[in-house]
Amino acid sequence: MTGRLIFRKLLLAVPTILIVSVVVFLLVHFVPGDPAVLIVGDANNSELLARVRVELGLGRPLIEQYADWLGRIVRLDFGRSLLTQEEVLPLVLSRFSVTAWLVTIATSLSTLIAVPLGMIAAWRHRSRFDTGIVLLSVLALSVPSFWMAIMLILLFGVELGWLPTMGYLPPSAGLRSLAFILLPVVALTFVQAGTVLRMARSATLDVMRMDYVTFARSKGLSDRRILFRHVLPNAFSPVLTIVGLIFGNLLAGAAIIETVFTVPGLGRLLVESITSRDYPVIQGAVLFISLVYIAVNLLVDLLYPVFDPKLRTKP
Amino acid sequence: MEGVILSVRELVIAPQLGEVALVDRVSFDVLPASVCALVGESGSGKTLTSRAVMGLLPENLAVKSGALGFCGEDLLDFGPAELRRVCGARIGMVFQEPMSSLNPALTVGTQVTEALCWHRHMSPGDARTAAVAMLDAFRVPNAATSLDRYPHEFSGGLRQRIMLAAVMLLRPKLLIADEPTTALDAIVQKDVLDDMVRVAKDMNAGVLFVTHDLGLVERYADQLVVLRRGKMEEAGPTGELLRSPASAYTRSLLAAAPSKRAPRRSTGTGQVLLAIDRLCVDYTASGGFFGARAKSFRAVDQLSFDVRRGEFVGLVGESGSGKSTTGRAIAGLVDVAGGQIIFDGTNVAGTEGPARHQARNRIQYVFQDPYSSLNPRQTIGAIVSAGLAELPRAARRAKVEQLLVDVGLEAAFADRLPHQLSGGQRQRVCIARALAVDPDLLIADEAVAALDVTVQAQVLDLLAALQRRRGFACLFISHDLAVVRSICDRVAIMKNGKLEAFDETGRVFGASGNPYVKKLVSAFPTLSQ
Amino acid sequence: MTGIAGRFSGLLAAVVLLAGGCGSDLPDDDARELRVAIGSDLRSSEPGVNRDAVSDEILNHVVEGLVAYREDMTVGLALAERIDLSADRRSYSFHLRPGVVFHNGEPVTAREAKWSLERAFHPGSKFSCSYWFDGSQGHRIVGIEAPDRLTLRVNLDRPDAMFLTKLANHQCLVGIMHPASVARDGSWAGPVGTGPFRLAGHRRGEYVMLERFAAYRPRPEARNGYAGARRALVDRIRWQVIPDPASARAALVAGEVDIVGNVDVGAVDELKVQRGIHVVSVPGYDWTALLMRSRSGLLADRNLRLAIAHAIDYRGLAKAASFGLSKANPSIVPLDSPDWLPGHAAGYVFDPALARRYLVRSAYRGEPLVIETSRAFPMLFDNAVYIQSMLQNVGIDARIEATEWTGMMSRYLAGDFSLMTMQFSGRPDPVLGYRVILGDFDRDAWVQWQSDAAASLLETAAGEQEPGERRAVFVDVHRAMIRDVPILQLYNIPVVNAYRTDLRGVQPWGLNKLRLWGVARQ
Questions:
Q1: What pLDDT is recorded for position C131?
Q2: Which of residues 1-60 of A touch B (CB under 8 A)?
Q3: B65 three-class SS
Q4: What angle do CA A294, A296, A297 make, to 5 degrees?
Q5: How far is A95 from chain C (nearest CA, A)?
Q6: How far is C42 from chain A (nearest CA, A)?
Q7: CB contact C8 to A (< 8 Å)
Q8: Can you give the residue ranges of every domain in chain B?
Q9: Which domains does chain C have, with CATH numbers?
Q10: Which residues have a Cβ under 8 Å from the Cβ of B493 and sit 6 or more positions away?
Q11: What is the pLDDT of residue B285?
Q12: Is B151 helix (H, G, I), strand (E, B) or coil?
């Protein structure tokens, strides 16, 4: 069953990815400006501009350019960056590994912190603790991530001088790499935690209103047992959905956080390639992001049966 | 008082921050091995009263005064911990919705045995053995293997039995059953209640039976308490009270009960308006984009019956019998897999085609749920006049106002929005909307099922009166045999998509040779004459 | 709860302590390493090909040309020890400094110099400024010879005063490199130059690492612009990519980078109050302008252009937009250039009443005029905002449309706008400066100003050798520009460097480029 589900989801992904790539292709080509403009700059040389455009293959009809790109993609050739001549696939993969590392830690942390807090808040509905949690989640949701990031830098990097304000070391560098990702992870966690907190609380509240919880209460069970056996397992699958969604979104690149903290991640690559109209990089990155998104959704789908026996036993 | 299990005295329930009592000085007793019924329409406070016993009132409500005596102690004096020791162990409660009252994430075994393990500190093995015995007592098939399955693998009736088994396993002194079978079909309802009362009486437990159905009360209850808007109307032994009710309200309740209603006088002309001939409808479970073969099953199978002009035909069956699907096929809302729907001499089967288009306005549909079938953003006037686009503005308004008066509302309702109306008023609006285009056939799909019994009676009277005046035919789809019997000239009974019986009402309910029909009729609670 | 909280805070403290250990201990940190914040990555390591400002800045530390600009933008010597000019002024003989070696240890001879020039100038070369040397603008190189081991001779088709100026250019750097810079298949392998630093590492999106070239032999004379002695006083330079300017400043204050070269004028005050930070600024050669599409349409009307010209308070605008660091300059010649004579001060008087009179005389009838601008550079956006309100003040319905940089550049190059706030990188010679705007409307879409008189004046200046005469010509060109009103020059962009106080030798100059030779940590 699982194998077929995966196969079907992947098959479904093909048209999705095709549509996404066409839309992105058209969008980036219809926006004024191309990489040749950046290469020529204010050198004001029309001949050079024309020549660079031809060299970059920009003059050809869009359909031809797209077909060309698609034809190469089928052979897993993502092409090279127009500006730096780097190969796109290794570039995207290396940037993705950075983002994935950051985001996985942040998502795990925010889930581990926000889910229990949200659930406890719901359980103590309308208590002071609950009010505090609601305020916290509103705060986390309304604080813009870049502001949060800059505040963290100013406090821990500049004022206290405990942590580096920028830069990145891969996890292979050992413990020292932790110092570099700590602030970005905190910023990402905080931003995510707002949503997760809210979702965990409202999902738990919803479950607490279910008849089976009232039934469990009528059996005279302890609060603990009701919470852990009856409420939490059922509250977890909507939370899982939202965590999966956030995780997928962030894997596509936490562009702002990556820019402010100078982390060489996928989001920054995408933003930079869009501003420089580096078409092969944009296309490659978007294609990759679509794949990641689909993979994360698939993972979430595969996790549902763990929490919902209905899905477990269906043929 | 010796021998009394539950003694409710002068119970008052009101909002935490308010004074208006939702339950006002209610008093009654529940005795061992007897069933005390708490009867009333929605808003009567019957459910609140039962929840107060368990300390399960909603957060914003509280018991303001009174006493809840249980085996000599007042439950209101108990703290949360003491209450928890009593709840489940000595008082058990079952709820209305079998679909949502069991935790979907836990096995049946866990849920049946958890209270036993908790209160009696029993080992899981012993608890399991006891659970199997109790499930057997409630006639849950394959009790032992059932324990390892999840709630969604069971039907509604079985889930209700499982819930009862879980509660009775602790041999409580008092069982509170809040509309335990309202969501079930008639036959299942009877079986479950029979078992519930049998097991409870075997254990010498008292039952507080919360219901709106006087038929069930007569069949099962020893004592009866009638509540209306939080106040007690009257109380007493069931037989006596139903024979000679003291309160006018109780009398109106009794009169409204479908089984007590005088049958509608037939106005059928004998001319066939609608003939269903070997109708088949398939339901296709969507298999998705690249899904393997889409699975389909036959919801309606070779169904044939007819409706004459001016006639009420009842279409009866349990849930899943295909009765609603048939109605939707006639209205052209679903596609037809085979057979014919001859309407006024023309085959209109299917959702498309010129014949169907012609018939569209002549067949009108009234849905079950008066809450979701009206667009909340449109005024009542706009809703009713939707089919009257060709009329000039003034004439349209006049017609709408006349229709509203005809269905027992006021002309001024035309400017209101649906949420300002009660359920009964909304259903009247639905009827007005259907009648606006002067249809030849009205399909009423469980049109009164969601209404309280007195409101239900009013709407049924209205339908009958309108029919006399306007002469339309009506296909009346319902699971409620008593209602069907009171209003229909002929009845078609369906089971699993097939026709079981089709005959005049009197004959079907009198002496049908069909065993299923017999069982169905006998399962239906009716008030004895 | 408290137990958990206690344990958690313990863990947090451990992480912070651990991190604190590293905070001041950047990877490969060393007192002999300079860390410089750059806003974008090195685009390519091939000088003058697929270049941008950051690439120019880094590669000028790695690769040297024969000649280079001095601080006053006159041409000084780099790899050439001496230049002989033939009597017909068409043949330049560059005598190379003896004993200079490439980063791979090979000696620098005329052979490599010839190879380098030919590679840059051959037809079809990807060198951005090959059009400077192929006759499209002025002279054409007709021959490159190596008569002896240390002499390189370049022959032109006609005398051209601009030849050395172009050859010394820092953007189109004609670097002398060893042929090993190119792989066997003809692709670019990496610069094997002669600079005081060599390219030692590059992590895309993170940093570029330069290492001191131990065998470098500085020129005897003092550092002067890009010319003169280039003494590497540190072992390494790490060019750290920090795309967000606020992050770059935070890193500077936290001591994680030593220099930020291109500081927003708006951030100067904020940095000045920080302890341990020096902020220095000098007038720059880069300049900003308001472009007006005068070739056709509404703005072809000179009266409307004059109305706009007189509506703008240049002094106030320069002061406000540069936070008091710059002055209005109506000329393309930078205020700080020795070529700037008092004649260049002639511009348009700020006179709203006069502007309104021109407006009445013009064909303008209240049509909306859109000022294209970009938020990519705060000054451009600020200019647009100030100009908008000044134009509205005289009754012009000015609107602002902010696009991102690439989009705006493409509209600029296509001439697709009516008004646009623009900035240009500083040109060391007025001839090159005027060529940014002057041209033939029909030939090039980017042209701002078409004037036969100005074009022929510039021709003479290009061929003219005597500085005094050239300067007089530039004043004439300026007058012509003011008369034609094709474009409104606003002010020169100040060069602001901020650095840690333990650095010595940081010195901003007119070109907005860091020079990190001669810079040491105390």
A1: 84
A2: 8, 11-12
A3: strand
A4: 65
A5: 9
A6: 9
A7: no
A8: 1-90+174-256, 99-169, 310-336+346-523
A9: 40-196 (3.90.76.10), 287-492 (3.10.105.10)
A10: B316, B317, B499, B500, B501, B502, B508, B514, B516, B517, B520
A11: 53
A12: helix
With tokens 């010839």, the residue in question is C114
The reply to whether B79 touches chain A by the CB within 8 Å rule is no
Residue C44 near residue C51, CB atoms below 8 Å: yes
What are the two backbone dihedrals, phi and then psi, of residue B177, each rounded to the nearest 5 degrees? Answer: -120, 110
Rounded to 5 degrees, φ, ψ at A302 are: -70, -25
Interface A–B counts its CB contacts (< 8 A) at 94
Q: What is the pLDDT along chain B (529 residues), one digit of tens a residue?
A: 457 889 999 999 988 887 788 899 999 999 999 999 999 887 788 888 998 998 888 878 888 889 999 888 888 888 888 888 888 889 999 887 777 888 888 889 988 898 888 888 888 888 999 999 999 888 888 888 889 888 888 888 888 889 999 999 888 999 999 888 877 777 888 888 999 999 999 999 999 999 888 888 888 999 999 999 889 989 999 988 888 888 888 888 888 877 777 777 776 667 889 999 999 998 765 444 444 444 577 889 999 999 998 899 999 988 778 888 899 899 888 888 889 999 988 888 877 878 888 888 889 988 877 677 788 888 888 888 887 877 888 888 888 988 888 888 888 888 888 888 887 888 888 888 888 888 999 999 888 877 788 888 888 888 888 888 888 999 999 888 888 888 898 999 998 889 988 988 888 877 767 888 888 888 877 655 4
Report whether B492 contacts B326 (CB < 8 A): no
- Rounded to a whole number of angstroms, the distance between the first and last alpha carbons of chain C is 51
C443 C-beta neighbours (distance < 10 Å), count: 9
Residue with tokens 């933008």: C73
- At residue C23, the 3 state secondary structure works out as helix
* HSE, side-chain direction, 13 A CA sphere, residue B403: 27
Average pLDDT of the segment spanning C262-267: 90
At A139 the pLDDT is 87
Q: What is the CATH number of domain A95-264?
A: 1.10.3720.10
A125 touches chain B (CB under 8 A): yes
The pLDDT-based confidence of C321 (bands split at 50, 70, 90) is very high
Q: Is the pLDDT of residue C47 over 70?
A: yes
* Token digits of residue B303: 């169904």
Q: Where are the alpha helices (DSSP H) in B138-223?
A: 143-146, 156-168, 186-202, 214-220
In C358-418, at which residue ranges do the beta strands (DSSP E only) sit? 369-374, 398-403
Residue closest to B436 by CA, chosen among B487, B382, B516, B482: B382
Among B91, B101, B119, beta carbon nearest to A215: B101
The token duo for C56 is: 């120019």
Nearest chain C Cα distance for residue A125, angstroms: 18
HSE-up (13 A, CA, CB side) for residue A123 = 17
Burial of C301 (0-12, 13-18, 19+ CB in 10 A): middle
pLDDT value of position C215: 93
Q: Output the CATH code of domain B1-90+174-256.
A: 3.40.50.300
Q: What share of chain A is helix, strand, coil (3-state, %, to 5)?
A: 80, 0, 20
C254: chain A residues, CB-CB within 8 Å: 153, 157-158, 161, 164-165
Domain coordinates of chain A in residue numbers? Answer: 95-264
CB contact under 8 A, A43 and C128: yes
CATH topology of domain B310-336+346-523: Rossmann fold (3.40.50)
* Chain A contact present for C99, CB below 8 A: no
Q: Which of B50, B59, B103 to mutate to test the interface with A (most CBs of A within 10 A)?
A: B103
Which chain C residues are Cβ-neighbours of A156 within 8 angstroms? Answer: 16
Task: Report the alpha-carbon distance of residue B75 to residue B477 in Å, rounded.
Answer: 46
Say which of B86, B101, B114 has its CB closest to residue A221: B114
Q: Identify the pLDDT of residue B182.
A: 75
List of chain A residues whose C-beta atoms are within 8 Å of the C-beta of residue C205: 95, 264, 268-269
